[in-house]
Amino acid sequence: MEMIKKGAEADLYLADFHSVLHRGGKGKVIIKLRISKKYRIPEIDRWLRKSRTSLEAKLMMDAKAAGVPVPVIFEVDPESSKIVMKFIEGIQLKKILDRMPTKRRRKVYRKIGEYVAKLHRAGIVHGDLTTSNMILTENDEVFFIDFGLGEYDSSTEARGVDLHLLRRALESVHFRIVNEAYHQIIESYRKTFGSGAEEIIKRAEEISKRGRYVAREERTWR
Amino acid sequence: MMICLGIEGTAHTFGIGLMNSRGKILANCWKTYIPESGGIHPREAARFHAQNAGKVIEEAMRIAGISPQDLDLIAFSQGPGLGPVLRTAATVARALAAWLEIPIIGVNHCIAHVEIGRLVGKAKDPLTVYVSGGNTQVIAFASGRYRIFGETLDIPLGNCLDVFAREVGIPHPGGPKIEKLAKRGKKYLHLPYAVKGMDLSFSGILSEAIRLVESGERLEDVAYSLQETTFAALVEVSERALAHTEKKELMLTGGVAANKRLREMLSLMAKEHGAKFVVPPAELCQDNGVMIAWTGLLAYKSGCRQRLEETQVKQRWRTDEVEVTWR
After folding, report:
1. Range of the domain at B80
2. Is A126 part of any domain?
3. DSSP 8-state class, residue A217
4. Taking residues A93-115, what's their average pLDDT?
5. Residues B127 and B252 placed together within one structural domain of the fold
6. Within a domain: B327
């Protein structure tokens, strides 16, 4: 088991399927472990890790049911605040988006817009829509990962924040192409979401003007 | 060298601070309005400040051993805060500046808390957790401004504790008494936990805590659970901000900074991130005139100037609206 990311809230490990789940299985799995915090009392610590683990797993399953590519979950253990999921072979979109050919990039924008709209329609907000949390596979599928800040929330405000954070993430990392990226993602979002999309897009702009949310791109430290 | 008189008046406290431009504190005096019952009444607080302004100024002058003619600059808390209270402080500031024919400068109260902390807490560039009866913000300096990385969406944490105290019959000041009671708490009672992304919410916790007392739970247990739950949420949001900003210092300030359990929790968190934890002395954590004087000096020295007609108060002046010219 190899640690691949140390986050503010959880650590991620990469392991072989057969060593974790079943010896007949193939491929790799990601193990997400929520970390215990010394600063809070055990009662709160246990309850938070447990309920957040369940919530994250549930969000991911509902996202999948809504037609959004997310890793398959193999095991959820709220008691040890552990989620075992499929490791998605691919590359973080953050690392490649700027260097992709225009046509392929357009395809990716369309998918992102479509998937965010599908999440929102399913009553889910992701809470941390950055290109670090999107994995591009070889056949040009975009997987959404890390629902750790996700919530069930159908309010215009929550959805607006989601879009706004996406724009901020694009601004900070993909500043060269932020305008085309956001514009095309929104166009696709509008199409998939249908009626009501305008209000959300407008709210996202209002939130930007409030000027208080900042990109969370580099929230984790290594 | 300049001497600045800073006037603080945003809520309960009317404060006068005298500072020189080398960062030496010459005097720090204040009077605090305590409501006879219930919460703060803005107009009564303003009246209290107006009645006491002269006395506090004289006292500060006496302690510093200076006369009004020695002053070079008047700074005042221009916002955010309660309208009538802000206007009283601003009126005092305008009168002094006009009489002495010296410049006047309005200061953002929240930023003043950060700046005095940086000076006396010896922190260069901290992530600041500012918690009081009127504000709850996690603040850090990024690209030219003090940005808010997390804040309360409803009531401030200090207000949550104060209202709880009042509702269950604990006399003013509620905070220290809740802390004492909490030490004797034995049983954790579940309370709603409200971290929303990077933000906080305390009103639901407050209602539930009051309900628990009314339903017969021990006051000590509820006080303990209330502290543990609200503080855990605040520390979690602070931790996210610290990881995001990668600041090497964590500062706690505001009236609630007096709470030892909150200090302990934040210092544990800071340690895990290899950050230095600082808390300014109590008389500079609470609302005070010194922080206003110091921030006024910083702004003035960096070229900020204000005409009298630009000194109208700003009740909802946000931390991230201020252009920081001195950093």
Report:
1. 3-109+287-321
2. yes
3. T
4. 96
5. yes
6. no
Inspect the interface and report whether the beta carbons of B197 and A149 lie closer than 8 Å: yes
Chain A positions touching B142 (Cβ under 8 A) are 214
Question: What is the Cα–Cα distance from B162 to B156, expressed in whole angstroms?
Answer: 10
Neighbours of A46 (CB within 10 A): 15
Q: What does DSSP assign to residue B37?
A: S
| DSSP states of B192-244 | ---EETTEE--HHHHHHHHHHHHTT--HHHHHHHHHHHHHHHHHHHHHHHHHH
Task: Report A:145-174 residues touching B (Cβ under 8 A).
Answer: 149, 151, 161
Q: Where are the alpha helices (DSSP H) in chain B?
A: 42-64, 83-100, 109-120, 157-167, 174-183, 203-214, 219-245, 260-272, 282-285, 289-301
pLDDT tens digit string along B186-202? 999 999 998 877 789 99
Q: List, in order, residues 6 or more apart from B172 with CB less than 8 Å away.
A: B34, B35, B165, B166
Rounded to two decimals, what is the model's pTM?
0.89
Final residue belonging to a domain, choices A21, A53, A86: A86
Residue A75: which domain range? 2-86
Residues of B in contact with A38 (CB under 8 A): 268, 272
Distance from CA of A166 to the nearest CA of B (A): 14
pLDDT for the residue numbered A211: 54
CATH number at residue A55: 3.30.200.20
Any catalytic annotation for residue A45? no
- Contact at CB, A38 and B318, closer than 8 angstroms: no
Q: ipTM more than 0.85?
A: yes
Alpha-carbon span B231 to B157, nearest angstrom: 9
Out of A37, A161, A212, whose CB is closest to B320? A212
Can you tell me the distance from the alpha carbon of A40 to that of B233, in angstroms, rounded to the nearest whole number?
Answer: 9
Q: Are B142 and B238 contained in the same domain?
A: yes
How many distinct structural domains can be found in chain A? 2
Helix, strand, or coil (residue A117): helix
- Which residues in chain B come in under a pLDDT of 70? none
A82-86/A28-34 β-pairing: antiparallel
A26 CA to chain B: closest CA distance, Å? 35
The HSE-up count of residue B68 (CA atoms within 13 Å, CB side) is 12
What's B101's domain CATH number? Answer: 3.30.420.40
Q: Is A138 on the interface with B (CB under 8 A)?
A: no
B-proximal residues of A, 29-68, CB under 8 Å:
37-41, 43-44, 47-48
